[in-house]
Amino acid sequence: MTYEGTSATEATATEDTTQTEPILRRTLLKTGATALGVMVLGAPMQKVVRAAGAVETATAVSVDKFMAASRCLIQHGLSPDVGARMAGILYAKIPTLDADLDAIISTARGKNSKVVEDFFDALPDGHVKDSAHQIIFGWYAGVADEGPTAEVFAYEEALMYQPTKDAVALPTYSFNGPDHWTDVDPPLSAMPEF
Amino acid sequence: MVSKMGADVVIAGTGIVGCLIAEQMLDAGLSVLMLEAGPRIDRGRIIENYRNMPPAAKAANPDGPFPPKPWALHPMEYTGDPDKDYLITSGPDAKAYQQAYVRYVGGATWHWAGTLWRLTPEDMMLNAKFGVGRDWPFDYSALEPYYTRAEYAIGAAGPSDPALQWPPMRSKPYMMEAFPFGSGQRRCVQAAESIGLQYIPCAQARNNKLAYQGRPPCSGNNNCMPACPIAAKYDAYSALLRIEAKGGVVVPNAVVYRVETDDKNNVQAFHFYDPNKTSTRVTGKTFVLACNGIETPKILLLSKNEKIPKGIANSSDQVGRNMMDTPKFFALAKFKDPIWSGLGPVQTGAIMSTSQGDFRSRYAGGQISLINFSGAGSAGLAALKQKLVGKALDEAIRRETACTGLIAVEHEVLPSAENRLTLSDKKDMLGLNQPAVYYDVGDYVRKGADLHTFPITRKFAEALGAEKVIRIPGFEASQHIMGGTIMGKDAKTSVVDTDCRAHDHPNLFLPGGSAMPSAGSGNSTLTMAALGVKAADAIANQTTRG
Amino acid sequence: MNTFDLIRVCVAAPLIAVFGLASAQEAAADDAEIKHGEYLAIASDCGACHTAPGGKPLAGGLPIESPLGTIYSTNITPSQQYGIGRYSLQQFSEALRRGIRADGAHLYPAMPYASYAVFTDEDVEALYAYFTKAVPAIDQPPAKTTSLPFPYNLRFSMAFWNALFLDAKPFTPDPSRATEWNRGKYLVDGPAHCGECHTPRGFFMQQDRSRQFAGAVLGSWHAPNITPDANAGIGAMGTDELFRYLKFGKVAGKAQAGGEMGLAVQLSFSKLSDDDLKAIVAYVRSVPPIGDAETKAKFAQGQPFTEVAKFRGIGATSSSEALPGGAAQLFAANCASCHGIGAGGSRDNYFPSLFHNSALATGAGRNLAATILFGIDRSTADGLAFMPGFGGKATDIAAFTNEQVVELANYLLEHYGNAAYSITPQMVEQVRIGQAPKPLLATLVDVGKWLACALAISLVLWWIVRRSSRTLV
């Protein structure tokens, strides 16, 4: 996972990635949530949160559904706290998000998918696929868009720093003590677990 | 007695130069008042600012973690629109003077890389040796003791082997050993050797395995720029508690806007505004403007009046002229095998010998360095842009991070009266003119890049195993701001003397980059600091006497 | 050369050879004794008190904040004028083992003579040889000398204290125990004087032997319970782990040495022989376990945790001081670079994990406050272990207020340590100035002094009134 030390979240990730049953049937694991100390911007923990800045057609934010779709698209440990924040932002940004999440989940289920590659190409082009890319972008980059004023909801937990965490420190977070980098030279093939 | 009203030595600027002088004055038993235009912000806030920035903004706005106060603006992301930018640049190389510096307590050493090159003897004798530029009014051996004192004042880690030192002319060893290279930097050593050059370790103002001055040793946070989260890298902010413990008084949010002189051309006072534009007059015996190379000439020009129509210290008309930097081009290289940038400090080694040679009579030399920033963020964004998913996405991020390298090539620019800082018509919230700089790196640099440094850079990259080398067009700023109050023996053609004392005003000192008569190709901070220590000797002498 | 010369040479040469050999042997024995004395001086950690920070070795001047006032260590170099240069072996022994100076005055038990009393005669001689022959004489007095307030300045009162509490007998091994155990007991009771810090004190500030090693507060730091109790003590630490703790100052996922113990590891324990360290471990693990209300091992408390998503990006960039994320963000901003955003430390454990770390689960959190304020600075064969201080001293990298220390420490204790602990600004202030809670004795003495003054004044007034009323009559 994104931070050091064994954690229940890593346990969550492992459970998520054991391929004994389709991704769909796994539920939001409360133990993982507890270990991360769920707190969503002062609001009590709810499964359904009102979308921030909602306009005419206010859509109820379903964090559960968002996490389920995210787990179809990404086979890594996903922080429910980050998911809750991202869900709030994307529900407000994408009017069709709720339906897109349903489409992602049902496409994955329809293909009996274990990994994203099993079903991604089968996603309908247009807003469903766009939403899928948007969700992946958010989890990896920790922001919802590439603009310089995008709202940041993850840095330490942003996934794009994970594929190289065995070699390259996340800036401002060294992973070892003084002069540790002298012995670091892993091959490209040694993709870390996360 | 120190009060908000005055002290023996009044220093505007709390960067490395101001803080070195302040501490030396306090040790000599003089009272010190430091005025800083900007706020005093602690390290934790700055680090959280960095972490809170969107990844795209980190490259576009490297000083994003230092949002300026409206009364003490410093450059942020440049738009090129004079109505939006604080520093307005123009000329064929306007982009190459889009400088970054920090008007916070601690100054620009918050965000510097910590690289500690010295000038070489030839760097200081361009005119005598190559018939170009200006000579320093003293030679390397006169500056060397001050280099040493500056290094010991901030903690320098460098090679003990003279074959690796730059230059190998040292009166004392480095107090900490040079940082070890990571795997990619080690390959640079071999690659350079294979083309007959030497990739040497940078001396760095960073604690290596020692807790010098109570600051932790570097553990490779790779965030030197914009700010070290643990103060392993020297920044002037880390000297503040020590300065205050010795009796120094530091006043933040105090924007010096006027230097007041009397009929005998002695400086009587600095005047500063607080954020509400309330003015305070500060008296003292000796005055120092150590505001980095843009703000120091700006204050001098702002201080013009009927008696001194060209501005303070400007009988030579050289204040604001001769603006220099080390204009830089980048070469992006893609490698087949991992080069793993981002291991350890952000700049750990370079080829320096390419800055020296007889060709300097015809074109510029330069420094070639594989810079060592983590590429994970930009690799991630690039892979996401390709709309990859799943394993392909992860593998692309890993490959792009590991196999991309950025080579920075910084050149020596010659001082030119046309490269000039003036007061623009735009005014900030305190009614003070914002600075403007016209900049042309000159054919000297353009030829140097085309004929000398880029061909070598390409060979170097290929020797490193690059499959692709792309030179990014144009030149960029390196934040090594020099020349605006140039040093010389002749008061008609220079602003300060060999102690950085203004020719025109015997109790005004203008130490730092703005005093340097030549730029060299290396990062300028150590030379600035050495000039600060040299000025400090003179300030202490004359203030104690007076 | 004539015959007489030849005879002289033939007689003299063997004599010189024999005596020369004897002197060489003597010199070698001298050298060995001095080296042994030096080793004992390191084991006894004389330098920790007798060398002031930045001062010359063993030349005194270090202030020791005792609950009864500041005690300054003395110059114990062989300086004739300012040190122990004129001490005979007997006088040296008296000072070391009975706390009596050459001039007959008593030493305060800040000098742990009550522990050094167990030194064997042979070891005292070796120490004497080292101090008088090998330590460079520093002919300077310490910057300050001890002058405690009344009545503690009455040094002769120590005679009563010694009569009650000083067991002035050199160590004799227990034949029923192994050699290693006996060696360990000797080292622990004597040179390493562990009880001086780790054993709580009784009413007269003597070591409470019934609670040996159960832990005590000394100035800024809490010397923890080092009995084998599984929860309150170090029972959960294995033999090898305890050995490594003494040799390197840390055990990953359990504990590290800070404050005075960090210094003791650096100057003393890390330089003892492996066999001596093992002996110390063997003895310490054999003393009676003493527990308390704790039901969980102090090494096994806390867990990985982060709530960074609660505040990451909130407020974007700001030039205002206040971090919106409260204590969690205070932690991220100041601590997480080294200790990790989930407080798991670095992978190589150079930076320790904060959970499963006894510093956050012992002594009511005192050592956590002390570590935040003062940092860690400890060198062993493993290298430098360093954490900067955040208490605002000239060499620190930040200047936390007491309130900030409380906010941060309580957050750390809640999530990574003993969540029942809660520290206060008063405790932080005590830690900052190095003040232990005042012993009852001192309070009573103070009360007694005031009462005595009040009584004296009343008596004087009564006497004056009596005199003037007599005059009137």
Describe this structure in words.
The complex is a heterotrimer of chains A (about 190), B (about 550) and C (about 475). By secondary structure, chain A is mainly alpha-helical. Chain A is built from 6 helices and 2 strands, in the order H-H-E-E-H-H-H-H. The radius of gyration of chain A is 17 Å and the shape is globular. With about 550 residues, chain B is an alpha/beta fold. Chain C is mainly alpha-helical and about 475 residues long. Among the domains of chain C are: about 30-150, Cytochrome Bc1 Complex, Chain D, domain 2, CATH 1.10.760; about 320-435, Cytochrome Bc1 Complex, Chain D, domain 2; about 445-475. Chain C contains 17 helices and 8 strands. The mean pLDDT of chain C is about 90. Classes of the chains: A mainly alpha (about 190), B alpha/beta (about 550), C mainly alpha (about 475).
Distinctive features:
heterotrimer; B: 546 residues; alpha/beta; FAD/NAD(P)-binding domain; 7-stranded mixed beta sheet; 4-stranded antiparallel beta sheet; globular; C: 473 residues; mainly alpha; Cytochrome Bc1 Complex, Chain D, domain 2; two-stranded antiparallel ribbon; two-stranded antiparallel sheet
| Largest interface: pair, residues per side | A-B, 50 and 57 residues
Basic shape of chain A? globular
Span from first to last CA of chain C? 112 Å
Order of helices and strands of chain C: HHEEHHHHHHEEHEEHHHHHEEHHH
Strand content of chain C: 5-15%
Widest beta sheet: strand line-up of chain C: 1-2
Between the first and last Cα atoms of chain A, what is the distance in angstroms? Answer: 5 Å
Number of strands of chain C: 8
CATH fold group of the domain at 31-148 in chain C: Cytochrome Bc1 Complex, Chain D, domain 2
Question: Which oligomeric state applies?
Answer: heterotrimer
Shape of chain C: globular
How big a fraction of the residues of chain A is strand? Answer: under 5%
Total separate domains of chain A: 1
Q: How does the helix and strand content of chain A classify structurally?
A: mainly alpha
